[in-house]
Amino acid sequence: MIKCVILDDELLAISYLKLLCDQIEGIEVVKAFNNPKIFLQEINDIDCDVCILDIEMPGMNGLQVAELIKNKKIIFTTAYKEYAAEAFDLDVVDYVRKPIKKERLQQAFEKAEKLLGEQKKNQFFEWNTNLGKTRIFVSDVVYIKTSDIDSRDKDLMLKNNSEITLKNLSFKNLSELLPEKLFVQINKKEMVNIQHIQVFSSSEIILDMVSSDGIPLKLGVSDIFKNQISEKLSR
């Protein structure tokens, strides 16, 4: 379910947008505003994923409002095509011209859903572990290795030096759970979070995690993965 908030200075436009959203499966309008200032006062306290903003409004236009919104996906609506370039400069989900058609609005929500899915992937994933079904925050993972006990399992080393075992999970499937830009496989048995790499050479990497004897953790690099590691680190 995507939760959205509407901002448009015209009440008829709000009613029409609500009607369209009600006709699109998986969309819930949690609140609507016709005043940009009140919208900005309340938006950070509202549980929503997407803001549908009209651009042409008196006092403060939608472009100005969008610059003040954090952690929300934005869909612009407007009858004026001249705002298109400025709208996309703000890295919004979509720009929908009025009069709005249901199919076009649905297309915008599909884009938002894809982006929200990627955002969720960048934050955490869930899997069966030695602790049961566990939510694992990606930013806490330093590196991953094939379990010495069962090669089908993967051991996750976390920033707090604790360890969690993911049950029955291949590196291929694990790569689909993790944000591609942050994790790279370095050999057949190990994968690392590139944010924790301190040194990378032709034969090894050194992480910012220390081993049990207090020495920085060193891991071997396989020849077949060198180019992939270099490419990730150069981004």
Q: In the CATH classification, which architecture of the largest domain applies?
A: 3-Layer(aba) Sandwich
Distance between the termini: 33 Å
Strand content: 25-35%
Spatial sequence of strands, sheet with the most strands? 2-1-3-4-5
Largest sheet: 5 strands, parallel
Helical/strand content category: alpha/beta
Shape: elongated
Number of helices: 7
* CATH homologous superfamily descriptor of the largest domain: Response regulator
Radius of gyration: 23 Å
Number of self-contained structural domains: 2
Fraction of helical residues: 25-40%
Keywords: DNA-binding, Phosphoprotein
Protein name: Two component transcriptional regulator, LytTR family
GO molecular function: phosphorelay response regulator activity; transcription cis-regulatory region binding
Domain Response regulatory: 3-113
Would you mind describing this structure in some detail?
- It is built from 7 helices and 15 strands.
- With 235 residues, the protein is α/β, with parallel strands linked by helices.
- Strands 2-1-3-4-5 form a 5-stranded parallel sheet. Strands 10-9-8-12-11 form a 5-stranded antiparallel sheet.
- The radius of gyration is 23 Å and the shape is elongated.
- One of its GO terms (biological process) is regulation of DNA-templated transcription.
- It holds the Pfam family Response_reg.
- This is Two component transcriptional regulator, LytTR family.
- Keywords: DNA-binding, Phosphoprotein.
